[in-house]
Amino acid sequence: MSDLKSRLIISVDLDEWYHARWATGSAASRWPDSSAFFREVYGTDGPRGDIERPTREILEIFDTFGVKATFFILGEVAGYYPHLVKEISARKHEIACHSARHVDLWHHSHESFRQELRQAKATLESLTGQTVVGFRAPNLVIEDWIIPILQEEGFLYDSSVCPSRKLMGKFGEYESFPKYPYRLSKDSFRPGTGPLVEIPIPVFPYLRLPAATGIATRVLGQSWTTLALRHSLRTGDSLYYFHPYEFTTPPVITGLTVYQRLFTRHAGPWMARALRSLLSDFSEVPRATCVDLARGFVR
Known about the structure:
11 helices; globular; alpha/beta; about 10% strand; 4-stranded mixed sheet; single chain
């Protein structure tokens, strides 16, 4: 891999199992919100702290491989686990915003999105002392109207576009968009000359299906991700992202559909081994955080 000159960005969406789109936050989710999940599955009024152990395992893996990553964090998660957010920041990882709640945009009006975004950004900045300039939409569900809001609220980049063909009720409308970082238009996710940078999620070549995500790695196999990243890095900077919940076994839930069971495939120790293997395979590739890439991009 030493012939590759592009940079690899590692990012983490700091989500728990109940944030999965099939569980909560979408029109087709099993529970209307996280509170309903807590009551039915956990028998509690809040989360159980399941995110802490896998996050610290991930941080140790990053230390082993010298990785400085970008963590996209929900305002909700920061409220539940302020100490964990502080620990991630203290280890010199970038803190970015993943909105306030893990819900599709249809839950929001323009103004409610702005208010929750502003609140989440302020919470993260207060906890860490870092200026938060990056955003990733929950479930990678985006609409053009958020672009002016991101600009006005002081963001430098977005990392929500997945130029995949339509899959599981998502994607499709961005299939022809660039696979590598680009400037956004001022009022849309199309390439343009606006102030925001887009850092897209790489897709598998030719097939144009999601590839550089923990979910794709677990469901389709590590080779799927490795081949896609190798192809992508030959011609541009690329990104890989995953979630801490993928490093744990899911809670016991009855009545899961075939799709939902597939979504949980290889969660736990298998994913930890896969991450170590991926970082080893790409150990000679230069790395950057999202903000490193975005700031260099706009110079």
